[in-house]
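Example 3.2
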Amino acid sequence: MPSFHSPGFRAYVLNAMQALRVPGLSLAVIKNDEVIYAGGFGARDTATAAPVDEHTTFAIASISKSFTATALAMLVDAGQVRWDDRVSEYLPGFRLMDDFATREMRVRDLLIHNSGLGSVSGGTIWYGSDLDRGEVVRRLRYLPPRAGFRSQYAYQNVMYLVAGQIIPAVIGQSWDDFVQQRIFAPLGMADSAPNLARAWQHENMATPHAPLPFGSSGPMEAVPYRDHDNVGPAASLHASCWDLAQYLRLHLGRGSFAGGQLISAVNAGALHSAHMAIENGQPALALAGLTPRFSAYALGWRLQEYRGRKIVQHSGGVDGMRTLVTMIPEHELGVVVLTNAEAPLTHALTYHALDMLLGVDDPNLDWVKLFAQIEGEYARAEDAEDAARESARVAGTQPALPHDALAGRYRSPLVDAVQVTADGGHLSLCFAHTPAFTADLEHWHYNTFRLHWRDPYIPWGLVTFRQDARGRVSALEFDQPSLLDVDFTELGLLHRE
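Structure, written as tokens:
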């Protein structure tokens, strides 16, 4: 088996980072309950060129979901929670728009993306907002369902927030402290933190990077951390590759670590068992002739087939970072890849590492090239969408009403209000609880305006002002490309006060 310590492997990683524009990366490899490699590549911050090592922390985003499922498994082992208990038994105020889903939602349902809500539903409530966890959960009742309860898979974050809120409801301890004391501490995860506030205490911390404006082909630039603590059980953890290697050792050991049983073998198995089917959707694997024969969601983990083996993995994506942890339980193999850029290198390097571990030597297979190809196709699709919007613009039109007539507060039970302000010849808008959603408005056509978001991370969109039968402005509606975790269509019409 080729060595992960060889100059050839290091050259491969550095070339891949250059090809996919990744400033810094850390990697850990586990085999037979041993960390056989842990190290860093590149810089944790392009401004300082400080190097990445195995103890550099990254925002691991949705990998946090597996920790929440693991925490609940511990409570199930202790007899304090049961997988099939109704959520309302622990959270009496829990409510969705669908009364049946509210009544019948079980703890297990929270973890498998079958709530009937749309993909990334609820992002407008928590992303970059000042609302706390309790208020985010309270507003779930205003989210319109996109499908019947338990009828289909749709990945989102807010049900994991609800799952995390069960912990303080049952034992009076915050999710953050539980993860710190019951998972981090016994595994020796000294670098890790449950939220951004505690992560700042670790000096060896990677900085997120993205091309600005977002989606451009420009160089990667440092972008500010987003504080996702208000959806913490879904997305707020920070960790190093060394720490995550210990976490994978726990899961590869079916709940056993260093001679102790932190999770029963029964519940460790339940965490890795298929609960919700997923449509296969890995274009790079298809291009490589390796389309998975199955794909499913477990409890906090995604499952699929890879070269005839079951893999257990979860990715993470937050503004300016991409991360991935992967296991092949039958071979006791694990791979951790953490990056400080929005690029598909996490998957490309993971599959390359798995092939090394499995003894696959295919000189015609270049994972970096395949993922770069897919990334290019996505970029071209986005450019085509932008071009289509540009071509649909009607030239030579004027707004039907003056700016002052457009100014005012537009209400939404999800986000409270969007304030539109007219200052001389200038229009702007701002979400009441999300300062990042502040934009300057440029006339597009008729009563539609282009949104120039002041946060360069957010792609441009459109907003249209609606008039009633008397010609008065009555509502506004967004036509905004989705962010990673935000779907603006869930806002619908925002009616003027």
